[in-house]
Amino acid sequence: MTRLQRRLAALGAAGRKALVPFITAGDPLPEATVPVMHALVQAGADVLELGVPFSDPMADGPVIQRSSERALARGVGLSQVLDWVRAFRVDDADTPVVLMGYLNPVEIRGAETFAAQAAEAGVDGVLLVDLPPEEAEGYRQALGRHGLVLIALASPTTPPSRLAAVCAQAEGYLYYVSYAGVTGASRLDVAEAAGHLAQVRARTRVPVMAGFGIRDARSAVAMAAHADGVVVGSALVSVLDGSQNADEAAARARAFLQPLRLALDGGPVAA
C-alpha cells in the first residue's frame, strides 16, 4: 500500500474528511515553500498539493496565475520543486505530496524520466490539468512503474461517456472541479455540486475531493458533506501573498488552515 493509499484509507476508516491544501511552489518566497508545507501539516493537512509554476496556467484564475508568475520570475522550475519535496521528506516521511500542474514540463523530460525523478524526490501522485483522459494511459503506466499515481479530474461539463472512463481510470483520489470555470471564482453552488458529486462517487472506487470555490471553513464543511474531502487553493495562496519571510508565510498558512480542519472535524464554524 502506498503512502497516499494509507492516508486515505485511514481517513475513511476514521470517518474523517480529507483536507488538501494547494500552494504554488516558490510563492510567496522560494525559501518559504518547505516551511509552509510543514506548517500546513501541523495545521491538519492530510495531503499536500504542490503547484508547479507554469507560464500558461489556463485552468487557474488570477490569484494562482499571479503566484505562478511570481515564482517563475524568481527562476523556480520543476527541478527546484523536486528539491523542495526532498527537503520536506527529511522531516516528514508520511504526508502524501501530489504535484499539480501542466503537461509541458513533463513532456520536456519525458514521462519515464519525470516519473523516476519525482518518485526519488518523494512525490506520491501527479495531477496534469491539460492531459486528456484519452491520452493518459502512457503517462499512467510510466508513473505506475515508479509507484506514483495519476490523479484524474472531472467537472460538471464532463460528458457521461468520458466521466465513466475517468471514474474507471481514477487512482489515489479523483479531483472533482465543483463548477465550470477557473480557480478562485466565487460562484460555488453547493446544491448543484452535490448532485454531480453523488453521481461521481457512485461510479468510482477512490475517494472524491471537491475543489474550486472552497474559501473558508463554512464552504469547506458545506462541500465536504457531499465529498470525501476538499481542496483549498486560491484562498490560501491569496493569504500567503505578501509574506515578508518564511516564518511569516508559515504562520499565515497555519492560521488559515486550522479553522478548516477544526470545522471538518465537527468543531465550530465561524460566522
TrEMBL record:
Keyword Lyase carried by entry: yes
Family affiliation: Belongs to the TrpA family.
Catalysed transformations (reactions): (1S,2R)-1-C-(indol-3-yl)glycerol 3-phosphate + L-serine = D-glyceraldehyde 3-phosphate + L-tryptophan + H2O
GO cellular component: cytosol
Main EC class the enzyme belongs to: lyase
Gene designation: trpA
Gene Ontology molecular-function annotations: tryptophan synthase activity
Role according to the record: The alpha subunit is responsible for the aldol cleavage of indoleglycerol phosphate to indole and glyceraldehyde 3-phosphate.
EC number(s) from the headed UniProt entry: 4.2.1.20
Keywords tagged on the record: Amino-acid biosynthesis, Aromatic amino acid biosynthesis, Lyase, Tryptophan biosynthesis
InterPro entries: Aldolase_TIM (IPR013785), RibuloseP-bd_barrel (IPR011060), Trp_synthase_alpha_AS (IPR018204), Trp_synthase_suA (IPR002028)
Pfam families (UniProt xref): Trp_syntA
Active site residues per record: E49, D60
Name the record gives this protein: Tryptophan synthase alpha chain
Keyword Mitochondrion: no
Signal sequence extent: none
Pathway: Amino-acid biosynthesis; L-tryptophan biosynthesis; L-tryptophan from chorismate: step 5/5
Assembly behavior: Tetramer of two alpha and two beta chains.
